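re: ur question from earlier - yeah i can do the single chain one, its not a big deal. heres the input i used so u can compare w yours
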Amino acid sequence: SAIKRGDRVVTGGGILATVSKPPKGADDREIEVELAPGMKVIVLRETITAVIAPPKAANDVKSGGRGAAAQPQAGGIMGLLKGLLGKKSG
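and the output i got, formated as tokens:
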């Protein structure tokens, strides 16, 4: 709904991108996203399937002082899906 500059998004095709130019208004269907540094494309608003929250900084993680680096991280698309669906990785 309220997509803003800097949001990390997932498109319907499974592409991860960062919003570089959000829609100008409620009726604007086009969003400019950056796939890689300097590589910008325009996608339709309705193809955005998820907005991913940016990872918390290591000092923001409340895990008994272990920090984010000590947390096991799942990688790739499976890690993304598990994070979006809220399932624990094992």
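Confidence is low (pLDDT under 50) at residues 67-72. not sure if urs matches, ping me
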